[in-house]
Amino acid sequence: MHTRALGHDRLKVGALGYGAMTMSGIYEPADENSAVAALRRAVELGITLVDTSDYYGKGQRQPDSEQGHNEKLVGRALQGHRDQAVLATKVGYVFTGDGTPGLDGGPDHIRAACEASLQRLGVDYIDLYYLHRVDPKVPVEESIGAMAGLVEEGKVRHLGVSEPSAENVRRAHATHPVTAVQSEYSLVTRDVEAEVLPTCRELGIGFIPFASLGRGLLTGTIRRAEDMALTDWRRTTAPRFQSENLQANLDLVDLLREIADRRGVALAQLALAWRLHQGDDVVPLFGAPSPPIVDANSPAADLLLSDGELTEIDAIFPPDAATGERYPEEYLRDVAR
After folding, report:
1. Is the dihedral of CA 39, 40, 43, 45 positive or negative?
2. Is residue 337 part of a domain?
3. Share of the chain above pLDDT 90, in %
4. Number of structural domains, the chain?
5. Active site (catalytic) residues
6. CATH, residue 216
7. Are β-strands 3-6 and 11-14 bridged in parallel, bridged antiparallel, or unpaired?
8. Alpha-carbon distance 302 to 4, whole Å?
9. Beta bridge partner(s), residue 11
10. pTM of this prediction?
11. pLDDT digits (tens, 9 = 90+) for 236-273
12. How far apart are CA 301 and CA 266, in angstroms?
């Protein structure tokens, strides 16, 4: 797979990245052995950026969730393959005991959390360490300053920020060079195009979209609510997957499918290729809890779209085309701070 370089320090990664969150069954139960095999397959194909978080846990968003489960799985999968991967994890979200996330961007928490992540991952250093969300109780300069100390100690090599506002991108970058900003970005979520993505480009910061396939909307596998498990967070909580919202969004997906069928490619490949065409500084993540999904999505890295096709896709999914918010209110309050 061809590579791309992130930030002024030119962190080299594969054009597509592996989002490990689904390994812990965030939407539907996942088979751990299959998930481990999927990550290893991704690395084998040159999908070198592996993205996890200390918050991703088995049974995430449940009161008894196992925090750090995802990092343990990633560590297990990368045993013997560490030098092939660019390992990214995050700090800042904490469990509150009732299944809802809390935030702690304090320096003491960041230092302790990094040590715990290193242990769970079974590694000596983290390639890319993100502030998962900006904590409104802590100036971003203090959080990034603590993370910069980890760089000086050799425990972290590059820094990132997840879901920040454009202002906080600037403040973080002024404190310590930021290699990458991560935010949700897909055909159904284009908010970052207004301010955050232009700011990253102005400052020379790479951009890592997560949920590049619209949390499954752009894969073609969801046609109705019943296609998701009863316990699936999308079915129970996510506004875009509720009743009339879901149908309105699927109507747009059907129009996109016509382009994919005309090209003879899978819908997910088309959606990922659109993301890749938004700039060489963009490395989209996709989740894949089994090797066949990795194999099905990876050809998107080589799928070239014409200007006409890009215009046609943009006409179907202009900004704000999706119906419903991407998060429920309790999660939206932590976005773009």
Report:
1. negative
2. no
3. 86
4. 1
5. 56
6. 3.20.20.100
7. antiparallel
8. 13
9. 6
10. 0.94
11. 889 999 989 999 999 999 999 999 999 999 999 999 99
12. 13
